[in-house]
């Protein structure tokens, strides 16, 4: 099995191709490419094959850590012209729209779970 296929399976990513995996000290950068041909508006269900343009910089999202390495997903995104929302960056299947969050949904769910399950010490615990 190739390293890119292994990483894709480990992270449970759908509708993407892993292009490259860069291992740095305490950091893992995974470069992705979306596999779908249609661009989807992140705020509604509008989809089109027409690309307005391609962003010059890759978008990055923090994902769940793998071992002691912080994991980052990176992907070059296209923009589309939605009839309702105007020119907007396409949706990705693993994160909220660009500009709303720089974390994957899996990362956000883990943080929310941790907040719900952690106990908060009160003043009487320190007496």
UniProtKB/TrEMBL annotation:
InterPro entries associated with the record: Transposase_Znf (IPR029261)
Organism: Ferrimicrobium acidiphilum DSM 19497
Pfam families hit by this protein: Zn_ribbon_ISL3
Domain Transposase IS204/IS1001/IS1096/IS1165 zinc-finger as annotated: residue spans: 40-85
Name of protein: Transposase IS204/IS1001/IS1096/IS1165 zinc-finger domain-containing protein
């Amino acid at each position: 099995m190739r390293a890119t296929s292994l990483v894709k399976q480990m992270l449970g990513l759908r509708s993407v191709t892993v292009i490259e995996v860069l291992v740095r000290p305490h950091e893992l950068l995974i470069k992705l490419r979306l596999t779908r041909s249609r661009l989807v508006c992140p705020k509604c269900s509008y989809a089109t094959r027409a690309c307005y343009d391609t962003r010059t910089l890759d978008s990055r999202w923090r994902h769940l850590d793998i071992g002691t390495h912080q994991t980052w997903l990176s992907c070059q995104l296209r923009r589309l012209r939605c009839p309702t929302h105007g020119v907007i960056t396409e949706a990705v299947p693993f994160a909220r729209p660009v500009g709303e969050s720089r974390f994957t949904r899996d990362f956000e769910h883990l943080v929310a779970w941790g907040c719900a399950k952690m106990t908060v010490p009160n003043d009487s615990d320190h007496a």
